[in-house]
Write a structure and sequence with these properties.
Radius of gyration: 13 Å
Strand content: under 5%
Oligomer: single chain
Structural class: mainly alpha
Order of helices and strands: HH
Number of helices: 2
Number of strands: 0
Shape: elongated
Distance between the termini: 16 Å
Length: about 55
């Protein structure tokens, strides 16, 4: 389960970076903001998993 959550976090971060870059390219502020939000969600998920791993050991 933890590996699945970690990969989901990385996927969310990557998706956010692509959205942000696309938004900047076409000048769409909403898409840029959505990309940043996706990245933050991925960062939060990754931090949660790292904390869970720290408490397991």
């Amino acid at each position: 389960m933890a590996a699945n959550e970690k990969s989901h976090a990385k996927t969310e971060q990557a998706k956010g970076k692509v959205k942000e870059a696309a938004g900047r390219t076409v000048g769409n502020e909403r898409l840029t903001a959505e990309g940043r939000i996706d990245q933050v969600k991925g960062d939060a998920r990754e931090a949660k998993e790292k904390a869970n791993d720290a408490f397991k050991h």
